[in-house]
């Protein structure tokens, strides 16, 4: 293969790369314009109006120009044919005395006739008279290029009047448009007369018409564009104002309103929008007041209950310490009282914590800690509960320490709630804790193989005081706020807490926290994929 052949084969790929580069560059350049076009309703309306009006003006201009041009040329042709026929009759009167083409006076007579006809303003300024034998007399120079076409002369030789539109350079000023009319003179000698009519005036009239049509079309298109811009501005301006006002309302500026002008449809739209905003503001204020009252009530009740609870706690502790001196029934009652007071204190503590989240006073005490060590402490603290329930807990973590900037107390509380919840619902099956990290986040997954979650319950497990099965007997005596507080703790770290499960297959909780405080979680090292058990195929017998 030669070098030239190699270049020939490589050129299509080079051209394709060049075309692709040009297309990408054109896309980058046109993208702002396309985005602007899509974002502006007024621009789309004005552009559509301009395009449609331009097409209509072009069609109208072509139709009018074609009609006027055809009318001018047809009128000039009819007049030229009539004048040429008259010229043929006048020439026939003077040529009737010649019987043979060999007469020596014939050429001079033919030249005199065409000169007289050309000098008469009634006829064409350029005339050509010829015989069938080829004798020619004409008013324009012999070296000129004004010669009828062979088709025209053949038609005229057949005894018909024929016309032709063409361009000639008769005067040496360049090609000019002419109408050539040919007529047959039937005498002793057959003659053909051709008249050359200049079309400069018609051409000037047609050019002026086209110029005026173009100017009028441009002016009309621009006028329609301005009218479309003004009309759409009247409609789009209130819509834009409504959009800006709604954005301000969404940003929390509930006092923003639209200005009402006049009494038309747009004014009614603005009034309806303002009424909607007013009702929305009132409703939000009412909900805020109710929420504030609820938070204040929860906080006040929680604080007020601490004082009598402390007194009850002192009395209960005294009775619990001396329970061995009581009879069995009183001893059992003392133990139940101690247990319920412990649960009541947990409930008050969690209510206070919830009130801090609601009021926005919750804050983090960040420190760099080993997340794996926190999980081990949680498992160690819940080992007694796991033994009572017959649940084995395993921890799968990286070989090296996973250090994250978190609030150790809150992370410990999250994992304690998740693991204790898994132990409670594991139905004696194992609980698996998995720890993984990425470049930006750490994740802890808690998986049990117990009762699981019904469809739709995964979105409700974090609701306050919600239980999947209220009739179940509980060993831990939970308050119903543990998972809700865990979710708030995860959000406070800018992390996520997700749940998934299936009936009879168990539940999976995935806690994801950023490694550095202040960052946000984008992707979790442990995706929320709940893998269900596959049923083994039934054996068949041959």
TrEMBL record:
The keyword Transport does not apply. Signal peptide: none annotated. InterPro entries: BphY/WalK/GraS-like, HAMP_dom, HATPase_C_sf, HATPase_dom, His_kinase_dom, HisK_dim/P_dom, HisK_dim/P_sf, MtrAB_MtrB. It catalyses: ATP + protein L-histidine = ADP + protein N-phospho-L-histidine. GO terms for molecular function: kinase activity. Pfam families: HAMP, HATPase_c, HisKA. It comes from the Bacteria. SUPFAM superfamilies: ATPase domain of HSP90 chaperone/DNA topoisomerase II/histidine kinase (SSF55874), HAMP domain-like (SSF158472), Homodimeric domain of signal transducing histidine kinase (SSF47384). It is found in: Cell membrane. Residues 300-517 form the Histidine kinase domain. Residues 233-285 form the HAMP domain. Keywords: ATP-binding, Kinase, Membrane, Nucleotide-binding, Phosphoprotein, Transferase, Transmembrane, Transmembrane helix, Two-component regulatory system. The chain crosses the membrane at residues 45-68, 213-236. Its main location: membrane. Its EC number is 2.7.13.3. NCBIfam families: MtrAB_MtrB. This is Sensor histidine kinase MtrB. It comes from Glycomyces tritici. The lineage of its organism: Bacteria, Bacillati, Actinomycetota, Actinomycetes, Glycomycetales.
């Amino acid at each position: 293969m030669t070098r030239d052949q190699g270049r020939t084969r490589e050129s299509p790929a080079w051209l394709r790369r060049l075309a692709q580069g040009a297309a990408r560059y054109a896309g980058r350049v046109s993208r702002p314009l396309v985005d602007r076009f899509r974002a502006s309703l007024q621009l789309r309306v004005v552009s559509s109006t301009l395009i449609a009006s331009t097409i209509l003006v072009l069609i109208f201009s072509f139709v009018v120009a074609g009609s006027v041009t055809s009318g001018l040329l047809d009128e000039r042709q009819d007049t030229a044919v009539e004048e040429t026929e008259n010229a043929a009759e006048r020439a026939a009167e003077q040529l009737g005395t010649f019987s043979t083409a060999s007469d020596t006076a014939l050429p001079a007579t033919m030249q005199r006739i065409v000169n007289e006809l050309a000098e008469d303003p009634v006829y064409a300024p350029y005339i050509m008279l010829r015989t069938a034998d080829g004798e020619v007399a004409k008013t324009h120079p012999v070296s000129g290029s004004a010669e009828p076409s062979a088709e025209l002369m053949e038609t005229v030789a057949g005894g018909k009047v024929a016309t032709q539109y063409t361009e000639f350079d008769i005067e040496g000023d360049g090609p000019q448009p002419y109408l050539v009319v040919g007529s047959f003179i039937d005498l002793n000698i057959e003659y053909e007369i051709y008249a050359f009519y200049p079309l400069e005036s018609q051409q000037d009239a047609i050019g002026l018409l086209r110029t005026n049509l173009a100017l009028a079309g441009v002016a009309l298109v621009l006028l329609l564009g301005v009218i479309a811009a003004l009309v759409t501005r009247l409609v789009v301006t209130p819509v834009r104002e409504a959009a800006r006002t709604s954005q301000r309302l969404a940003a929390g500026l509930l006092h923003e309103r639209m200005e009402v002008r006049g009494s038309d449809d747009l004014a009614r739209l603005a009034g309806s929008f303002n009424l909607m905003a007013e009702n929305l503001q009132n409703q939000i204020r009412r909900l805020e007041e109710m929420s504030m009252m609820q938070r204040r009530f929860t906080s006040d009740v929680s604080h007020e209950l601490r004082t009598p609870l402390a007194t009850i706690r002192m009395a209960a502790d005294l009775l619990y310490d001396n329970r061995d001196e009581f009879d069995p029934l009183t001893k059992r009652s003392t133990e139940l009282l101690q247990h319920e007071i412990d649960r009541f204190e947990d409930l008050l503590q969690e209510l206070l914590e919830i009130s801090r989240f609601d009021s926005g006073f919750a804050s983090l005490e960040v420190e760099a800690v080993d997340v794996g060590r926190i999980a081990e402490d949680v498992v160690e603290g819940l080992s007694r509960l796991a033994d009572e329930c017959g649940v084995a807990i395993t921890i799968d973590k990286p070989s090296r320490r996973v250090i994250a900037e978190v609030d150790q107390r809150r992370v410990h509380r999250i994992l304690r709630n998740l693991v204790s919840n898994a132990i409670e619902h594991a139905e004696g099956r194992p609980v698996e804790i998995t720890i993984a990290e990425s470049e930006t986040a750490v994740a802890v997954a808690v998986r049990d193989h117990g009762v699981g979650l019904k469809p739709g319950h995964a979105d409700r497990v974090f609701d306050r005081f919600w239980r999947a099965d209220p009739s179940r007997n509980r060993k831990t005596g939970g308050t119903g706020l543990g998972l809700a507080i865990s979710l708030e703790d995860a959000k406070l770290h800018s992390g996520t807490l997700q749940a998934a499960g299936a009936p009879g297959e168990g539940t999976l909780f995935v806690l994801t926290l950023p490694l550095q405080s202040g960052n946000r979680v984008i992707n979790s090292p442990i995706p929320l994929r709940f893998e269900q058990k596959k049923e083994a195929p039934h054996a068949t017998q041959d």
